[in-house]
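Can you give me the bound-state structure? Components:
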Amino acid sequence: MNWYGNWVSLVVLTRKEIKRILRIWTQSLLPSVITVTLYFVVFGEVLGSRIEQIQGFEYINYIVPGLVMMAIITNSFQNVVGSFFLAKFQRSIEELLVSPMPSWAIITGYALGGVIRGSIVGGLVLLVSLFFTQLPVTNIFIVLVFTFLTSVLFSLGGLINGVFARNFDQISIVPTFVLTPLTFLGGVFYSLEDIPQAWATVSYFNPILYMVNGFRYGFLGYSDVSVWLCFGVLTALLVLVFFGTWLIFRTGYGLKE
Amino acid sequence: MSLALQITDLSKTYDTNTVALRGVSLEVEQGAFFGLLGPNGAGKSTLIQIVTGLVNKSSGQVVVNGDDIDTNPSKAKTHVGVVPQEFNFPIFDRVYDIVLHQAGYYGIPLGKARENAETYIKELGLWDKRDEQARMLSGGMKRRLMIARALVHEPDILFLDEPTAGVDIEIRRSMWQFVRKINEEKNKTIILTTHYLEEAEALCRELAIIKDGRIIRQGTVKELLSRLERDSIILDLATELSSDVQNRLQAQGFEVRDGTTLYISFAREESSITAIIETLKEEGVTVSGVRNETNKLEELFVSLINEN
Ligand SMILES: Nc1ncnc2c1ncn2[C@@H]1O[C@H](COP(=O)(O)OP(=O)(O)OP(=O)(O)O)[C@@H](O)[C@H]1O
Ligand SMILES: [Mg+2]
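Here's the bound-state model for the whole set.
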């Protein structure tokens, strides 16, 4: 296929993914918004006044960026792992594999679905946060870059998970046992300055810490670690995951017998 | 004439160590109506999946319309449309979207894709159902949906892997008609697998019989059938046979099924239908009808499969 054909195939796959997100919005968009709103209510309204400021910020302001990031991470991941595994399960992935659509377009199409769902849910959560607080924005550019790169990273992660998954259990393992714990321990609810040194040291090995902090810097202008370090860690992970995904599609591993 | 499909020494061993194909070589000319017959597990679907890019081969070469699937996979794929043995569409999507999206995956721009989707959904008689989710369709409709989807990018070669499994007789006949039409009028090459030998005999001009991953016979349907050494026929009689005549006929190799039905199996070199009728005439028996017990191809098939 020529470049125009490739482009058409990418647009078609991406549109299909977007349509799917909108069709099943009660499963794709709503749950995270509800969960995060509950966090806002409990930690902002109910407990917020009893919790001290963190690094000079109201508690609710400190946690909103982290919670938005959490929504972006889980939604990009779950969109791709869910959609891709279903396609594999009902064998409709064969529609793509018999076509001349290049691997990069298939990867990009699925990843864009994840990026879009992550961004929509992130945006909705941010919108809801307006009912609880007025978050300052220090650097919108940083906010957008971290949103985009993080959602790409976890979309591709979801794709890899979807390729390897053999049953429905295996698509919920990573969100439940990896993503949720790492996010909770990734500095969403506290600053590294305020926790015991040992815990803080361990936290530096948690990649999600860098995404949360970089993203938070875009709003509050404060981060536990250097924003450049955050950016560096994120980029390095992206390169790794990108290479992994490319390798899978190149060899057909997990897709073709 | 140039070749639609050229397979050379194709082998496939699955990760489970199952050997599905053992050095298959096959040539199909453009415009052919080709049948691939073989018992369950013979390797038919594996062969089709390798050609269409769903399964990686272990060794061998596959060239589709002059394009090698290794060196020119993208081009090779555009030549081919495939109707797989098992349903593989996204069940929650609408019929129309499934066909439209497939055109998109082949890089066909939206306007042309819409036009083709409409044409083929209509041709397969599904236009009324275009807004329904695919899971709501009946089994036969699902097959037809997959045919429309396979044709939407207008390939030169169409693979049909048991397209009429579970389809009622009326729809089966209309599918035959449709496939014949696109073979004859649009000169598309058709490669079909089926377990209905009647279907193979009615549709295909050439056949390959595959067993345990090897092609054991190949040729035109006529050639293959003429190799069938024995014929067997059933004769319906106008009147009941007396026990006297029955005994004499039985002595000559006839099997008396009931008073008015006879069965005989004979070797071509030794006898002929005329000779048999002659014998019956001498006995004063009137034959009112002649039938084949089974489909001829079926006899050939069974005898080949049971060899060795
Ligand atoms: N994905 C797979 N993994 C391992 N073995 C497989 C796989 N698919 C098929 N096989 C094996 O390969 C052999 C050939 O199977 P194939 O599906 O090609 O047969 P077939 O001729 O299409 O049979 P049928 O008429 O039943 O459809 C069988 O022994 C089968 O068990
Ligand atoms: Mg099969």
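A couple of observations. Chain A touches chain B at residues 1-2, 4-6, 8-9, 11-13, 16, 23, 86-87, 90-92, 94-102, 252, 256-257 (CB under 8 Å). The mean pLDDT of chain A is 90.
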